[in-house]
Write a structure and sequence with these properties.
The protein is 40% helix and 24% strand. The longest helix is centred in the N-terminal third of the chain and has 22 residues. With 291 residues, it is of the alpha/beta class. The radius of gyration is 21 Å and the shape is elongated. The chain has two domains: 138 residues, HUPs (Rossmann fold); 140 residues, 3-Layer(aba) Sandwich (Rossmann fold).
Length: 291
């Protein structure tokens, strides 16, 4: 099956902004775009009177309107649209199974609070099998990100653990023909976390920061070879992952972070770093599931 970008729309200005971003990304990557709208007939109790055909028509009209807008702005775009007969979260998760990227909209919520992701967005990002891009909007349009801005990616763990996150980031940078800034944040371990073995490993590299730099370079090496055209800036900084990434991505056009695939008694989680950047980064954020 040909790789496809999928965007979820619900008629809100935020979802229209996400659709516009997804269309530009599809054109940039020469990929088809599939626009989906989740709608399930759920009649309300009396005295509210509803007509199923009327409600179904509204769902169809919404998709036709979005299709028309995107076709007008991006005439070369390969575009399809579909009403998904289900409630939003399971409908979007099914769509994500076939997607290269799933794109959703996020509403601005003031400079202090940041962005309002919404319960649907949190659930989908926490459980989707493909990368999910959260697009910020203002007045129904994507928040402007500098076209010449870098792609920024957060790298953590080892080579295999960060492979999928780096793949998505390198591919995005290559498609945009812009540099990629790979960021690895680190913190001093608590005293009880030291062990003779871990300190011996760090000492071989001349200290903890050189050790972190070596770990980042090791993770980047196979992707530098695969994407030689991408200029890479290796960025290692002491501090919390969320804070370091938000600072590094202040002028970025896309921020890519990972989400560990794991379940708990309370269900799937996004993770603290992804949670921070999703709520406070101005640029679009791609959250990539990884092992």
């Amino acid at each position: 099956m040909k790789r496809t970008l999928v965007v979820g729309v619900d008629g809100s200005p935020q979802s229209r902004a996400a659709a516009d971003w997804a269309a530009r990304e599809a054109v940039r990557r020469d990929l088809p775009l599939h626009v989906v709208h989740a709608w399930l007939w759920q009649p309300l109790a009396a005295p509210i009177v509803q007509d199923r055909d009327t409600e179904a028509g509204r769902a169809d009209d919404l998709l036709k309107e979005v299709e028309g807008e995107l076709t007008h702005r991006y005439p070369g775009l390969a575009l399809t649209a579909e009403v998904l007969s289900d409630v939003p979260v399971p409908a979007l998760l099914r769509a994500a199974k076939e997607a290269e990227l799933l794109v959703l909209g996020t509403r601005g919520h003031g400079a202090l609070v940041g962005f309002l992701l919404g319960s649907y967005g949190r659930q989908v990002i926490a459980a989707a099998e493909c990368p999910v891009v959260s697009v910020r909007s203002a007045h129904g349009r994507p928040v402007a990100a500098p076209e010449e801005g870098e792609v920024v990616v957060g790298q953590q763990g080892g080579v295999q653990e960060s492979a999928e996150v780096l793949r998505v980031a390198f591919e995005a940078a290559a498609a945009r023909k812009v540099p990629l800034r790979a960021v690895r944040a680190w913190s001093l371990p608590p005293v009880y976390g030291y062990s003779p073995g871990s300190m011996w490993i760090a000492d071989q590299f001349g200290g903890l920061e050189p050790y972190e730099r070596a770990a980042l370079e090791q993770a980047l090496e196979p992707w530098r070879l695969k994407y030689p055209e991408v200029e890479v800036v290796a960025h290692v900084e002491q501090g919390s992952g969320g804070h370091v990434l938000l600072t590094a991505a202040s002028d970025a056009q896309l921020l890519v972070v990972g989400r560990r695939v794991r379940e708990s008694a309370l269900g799937a989680h996004i993770g603290s770093v992804a949670h921070a950047v999703l709520h406070h980064a101005v640029c679009p954020v791609a959250v990539v599931p990884h092992a």
